[in-house]
Structures are given as structure tokens and as C-alpha cells.
């Protein structure tokens, strides 16, 4: 898990140190004051799409809009791993 504020957004795959990168198609762009929440399409299985929180200036520069293709990058130290919830077998 990681917060949307830990995600950097790029117009092309980033080069250099970022290792946790994923390309996605933008599903939603929601301006929230000085920031913009950029969300990808829902994941297979119904999980919500990945999200990034960027500045309005960055969103304008990147021209993010529903349908645009971007790359998300998260630094490894920003990721927290949690065990999956235990599911009880149905009777």
C-alpha cells in the first residue's frame, strides 16, 4: 500500500532510479484545491485503480485527462506491505 501523494506521474516511462513503475490509462481527473487526483481504471477483480496526487501545475504540464496514457512511479521506501485479510471458508 502507498498513499497517492507518494506517486510521481510521467508522460513516458521514467529512466534512472525509479523501479516501481506502471503504465496506465487515466480514468478520472479530480481537482481538489491546489492538487489533482489522477486515477487509473479499476484493476481486474474490481480493486480500485491506482491513484496519484499531483499539483495543478504538474497536471497542466502533463496534460492529464481521461483516456491519456501516463506512467506512475513509487519509491520503494513509500510502499508498505500488509498481509491479506483472512477469508473464512464458506460452509
From TrEMBL:
Q: Where does the Mop domain lie? A: 15-83
Protein keywords: ATP-binding, Molybdenum, Nucleotide-binding
Q: One biological-process term from Gene Ontology?
A: molybdate ion transport
Molecular functions per Gene Ontology: ATP binding
| Tree of life domain | Bacteria
This chain's protein is named: Molybdenum ABC transporter ATP-binding protein
What is this organism's lineage? Bacteria, Bacillati, Actinomycetota, Actinomycetes, Mycobacteriales
User: By which gene is this protein encoded?
Assistant: modC
Amino acid at each position: 500500500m502507498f498513499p497517492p501523494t507518494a506517486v510521481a506521474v510521467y508522460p513516458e516511462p521514467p529512466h534512472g532510479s525509479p523501479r516501481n513503475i506502471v503504465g496506465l490509462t487515466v480514468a478520472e481527473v479530480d481537482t481538489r484545491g491546489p492538487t489533482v487526483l489522477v486515477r487509473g481504471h479499476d484493476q481486474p477483480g474490481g480493486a480500485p485503480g491506482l491513484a496519484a496526487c499531483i499539483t495543478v501545475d504538474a497536471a497542466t504540464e502533463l496534460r492529464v485527462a481521461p483516456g491519456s496514457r501516463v506512467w506512475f512511479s513509487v519509491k520503494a521506501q513509500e510502499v508498505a506491505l500488509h498481509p491479506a485479510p483472512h477469508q473464512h471458508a464458506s460452509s
